[in-house]
Structure formats: C-alpha cells, structure tokens
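During the reporting period the student researcher (J.K.) took over the structure-prediction task from the postdoctoral fellow and processed the backlog of single-chain submissions. One of the processed entries is reproduced below for the supervisory committee.
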Amino acid sequence: MTNDLPELEDDDKPVYDGPSKSQVKRDMLALTDLGKELVALSPERLKQLPLSERLYDAIRLAHRTTSREGLRRQVHFVGKLMRDAPAEEIRIQLDTWKNGSKEQTQAMHRLETLRDKLLKDDEVLTTLLTKFPNADIQHLRTLIREGRKELTANAALRQGQEPQRKHYRALFQAIKTLHEPDES
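J.K. obtained the following structure tokens:
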C-alpha cells in the first residue's frame, strides 16, 4: 500500500507558522489599551476617527458607565471591537494629537533658532525685515532689546532663582505670527 503523503522523520515535524499564543495575547492587550485611550477621548475627537457605528456606540456607553467593574467590562468589549477597526490609523491620529505632527515640531524648532539668532545678531533682523516688509519693526526691535536685557539679567542670577522670560516668549510669538499664513 503506497502512501501519497511524504514520510516524516522524527526531526521533521509539521511546523506551525502562525503567531504564538503569547503574541496573540500581546496584540489583544494592545488593542484593549488602545480602547482605553479611546474611552478617555471627548466625543468631538471620537467623531474625527474612522470608527464603526458599533464601536462608537460602545465607547459612548463606556463614557456613561459609572461602576468600576462595568467600566472594566465595557473597555474590554471596546478592545474586542477594535479587532475589526483600523487600529494603525487610529494610533497615528492619537499620536498626532498628543505630540503634534513632526512638521509642526520642526517649524517650532526653526522659529526658536531664529529667535536665538535675533537676540545675538542685528543682521538677522535686517534679513527678516526683507522677507516680511509689513512687519512691525518698532515692536520687534523693542522685543529684541528687552529680550537681550532679560538674557543679561538671567546670566547674573544665583542658583535657585527663577529666570525672566517674558520678552523672550513675546519675541517668539511675534516671529510665529509673522510666519503664520494670513487667514482672511
């Protein structure tokens, strides 16, 4: 009698290629944690996410649940519903809301660098005024002068004393306003 199946030696056992039980459990816990984050969001933010109607209703029910055990069960149910949701899209949006986008962060760093250069060198102000001819020159010069005074005073502070940053921050806001597009 011939067998059509290949013979397996003792070392050649069939191998399971799927995820391990531990990995499946980690994935489920990650979805439950994501569900907890969603339950903590406001309804306005929830509406901006790609959620199914059933998932949205489950999250809203969790908002109304007052008992601790009931909330725990509802959060686990939300985690279960998250299996069918676009979890990666949701994570990206939550990360953007928490940390801001990378572009925004880079823009803020550029503005901070420009502010520091303005406080050190008057030529930078000339370049800035060439780029933004409608800028309030007098206001910028005043902020730069006062910011320089603050830096000098802060350098003389003893340890433990709080540095002054009023004009330093105001200069940043003025530069930020220049770089923002007009919303007319």
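The committee noted the following: The chain has two domains: 21-99, 102-179.
J.K. will present the remaining backlog at the next meeting.
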